[in-house]
Amino acid sequence: MSDLSTHLAWDATPDPMDVAVIGTGHVGLITAVAMSVTGHRVVATDVDDDKIARLTEGEPHFYEPGLVESLERQLASGRLRFSSDPSTTVGDAEVVFICVGTPPRADGEANLLAMETAASMIARHARRSPVVVEKSTVPAGTADRVRQTMLRDSGGTHFEIVSNPEFLREGSALHDSLHPDRIVVGGESEHALSVMRRLYEPITSQGCRLIEVDRATAELAKHTSNAFLALKISFANALARLSELAGADVTAIVDVMGSDPRIGPAFLSAGLGYGGFCFPKDVAALERLSTRLGYPFPLLGEVARLNDEAVEAVASKVEEALWNLEGKRIAILGLAFKPLTDDVRFSPALTLARILLQRGAEVVGYDPRAIEEAAREVPEMQFARDAYEAIDGAHCAVIATEWEEFLDLDLAAVRSRMTYPVIVDGRNLFDPAEMVAAGFSYYSVGRPAHPDGRVPLPSSLVS
Ligand code: NAD
What we know:
Layout (H helix, E strand, L loop, with lengths): L4 H4 L9 E5 L5 H10 L3 E5 L3 H8 L10 H11 L2 E3 L3 H5 L4 E4 L14 H13 L5 E4 L7 H12 L6 E4 L9 H6 L3 E5 L3 H15 L4 E5 L1 H32 L3 H9 L20 H14 L5 H25 L6 E5 L14 H11 L3 E5 L4 H7 L4 E2 L3 H5 L4 E4 L11 H7 L4 E4 L6 H6 L3 E3 L15 H4 L1
Parallel strand pairs: 1-2, 1-4, 2-3, 4-5, 5-6, 7-8, 9-10, 9-12, 10-11, 12-13, 13-14
Bound molecules: nicotinamide-adenine-dinucleotide.
The site of nicotinamide-adenine-dinucleotide has 26 residues, from helix 6.
């Protein structure tokens, strides 16, 4: 993986295009910056005027490694601008990316209202008949609805709609946008496909594969990719339960499995499960789509159920360690759904916090980046300025997100500050033998806590 300086020093394309981006969230802002880095002229907009005002000043509204520097550099280049005015944004664009949110409805179906609003806005303000690129993750068939909406709201203009799903990972989003594994473009006309080839030429010329398919295939391929990754995580979590019953070590099992190139090690880790704005909603949306199309896909429901079970299993370990939770103080280390982001949407750490609060515990959380975001989601929690403050007086500390800084904790200091030295490691971050040697009652996921399989009680619990 190339370092962040790669995208700071990228040479601009000799064939720049006018690009508009609708929605400046985790995908839209990164797309806007990446398009500017590759040399295109970009105007991005959002319904949230406050975001646009801050972005114009070079202030991103979420954390992503390297983003502040990259945003500043692209603003200074003059290629990247932000605007709240729809006409300024899409008026002269040759390509318009739709990057709005597609959150889940209560029944799991994707809420596509923002897609319709964005499509309608483009239809009313575009002057150059741009290719409209659906980058948001949407159920197969959405591009047809976008096309119909645009035809109606433009008063009869025909727009080319392309599906171009995004595969970036929060935490390495800029890198992923500029050095993707593959670019998928689903289009119905040679004109639209040729525009997309031109747009992505700076990236494909570096060897990235561009896969051209039809629109429904592109839309479905995004949902199926995420569902399959979620399946791997849930599979590992089911193996963790089985390993605990069989006295086996799930980390060794997935190491054995993942060494087979047909399986691969990625996303095969047991723990607190997956979260974030993609996997939970995309698994649910794919299940809903399959059922709607007449092919119920119960495996997807099982993937989600195993993910819920993974959080419940960690909560049970806390109860197993502490017996009653009422009046117990529990520190949760890590609140973001994964490291290197401040995104707490569908974070398993916050699901766990809610369960523990509901069972009567006092919960104090710490995260290197996501405290403000977590406080908005779970205001009943307390928050600490660092990990040591969080574990002060705690009866148990739970590792909920695998931030690297937790590996640097001074274990003797941690132990001395806690009321009971109990660690429940929801991410298998630490070595069990080392934790036991450091004097902790240490619980992890799918691994024996001790060579003899027992979790020794701390002296403070037995005396
Ligand atoms: P987000 O919530 O971070 O950003 C969405 C943005 O769209 C917000 O800033 C919102 O204010 C804006 N918006 C909503 N309606 C609008 C409208 N009509 N006009 C202009 N702006 C509007 O969401 P996100 O994480 O960027 O995800 C966007 C899409 O990309 C989703 O479909 C998601 O599934 C998909 N996706 C997300 C990721 C990820 O890691 N976050 C990765 C790949 C794909």
